[in-house]
């Protein structure tokens, strides 16, 4: 571990006084039993690659609302509340924890009257669920191979490059309709751009961001 503050990386220099409790596991900085997230790894709003869990939660709630909405557009609040209670006790397929377990450390009461810890679904449903997960896994693997087939890593941007800027929110989200000049390039694809409207934009863009060099204006 570094003996002096200036010997530590800039991203974790503020944790110098806790240096004896810091450790690295697979490149991840850990303080005791907590993961330290350097400021340079913070993502921008609407960056889907890092907001996957949040986007998944939004899609789940939207699906619950659609399933409990009548053709006239009226929400059945009783059915929706029952669905939310059931969702809070549903285990995540990767973490093997439910939202209630993550927050309270235990399952919460729902509309299924069982003794906590004694829920044992029928073996037929267990085998069906397992087969469904295996089928989805193969589908996701084929989708990942298809999406990764024609991508490439673009050269890094440098200060002075003329770039296109993609909208992240608003009525024209994901549209490249603004241009600017890079005035600062940071690690983890974080950059600052100066636009003609005299706005300094700080954003984290994917590696596939199209750029326009100064000699091609």
UniProtKB/TrEMBL annotation:
InterPro entries: Retrovirus_Pol_polyprotein
PANTHER family registered for this protein in UniProt: INTEGRASE CATALYTIC DOMAIN-CONTAINING PROTEIN, PROTEIN CBG26694
Protein name: Uncharacterized protein
């Amino acid at each position: 571990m570094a003996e002096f503050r200036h010997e530590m990386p800039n991203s974790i220099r503020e944790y110098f006084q806790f240096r004896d409790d810091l450790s690295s596991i697979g490149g991840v900085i850990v303080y005791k039993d907590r993961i330290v997230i350097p400021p340079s790894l913070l993502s921008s709003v609407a960056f889907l690659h890092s907001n996957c869990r949040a986007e998944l939660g939004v899609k789940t709630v939207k699906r619950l609302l659609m399933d409990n909405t009548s053709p006239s557009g009226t929400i059945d609040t009783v059915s929706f509340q029952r669905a939310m209670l059931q969702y809070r006790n549903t285990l995540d397929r990767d973490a093997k924890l439910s939202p209630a377990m993550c927050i309270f450390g235990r399952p919460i009461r729902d509309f299924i009257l069982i003794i906590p810890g004694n829920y044992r679904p029928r073996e037929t449903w267990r085998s069906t669920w397992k087969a469904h997960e295996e089928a989805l896994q193969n589908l996701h693997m084929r989708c990942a191979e298809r999406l990764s087939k024609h991508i490439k890593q673009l050269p890094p941007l440098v200060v002075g490059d003329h770039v296109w800027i993609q909208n992240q929110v608003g009525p024209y989200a994901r549209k490249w309709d603004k241009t600017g000049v890079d005035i600062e390039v940071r690690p983890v694809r974080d950059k600052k751009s100066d636009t003609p409207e005299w706005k300094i934009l700080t954003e984290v863009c994917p590696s596939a961001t199209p750029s326009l060099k100064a000699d091609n204006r």
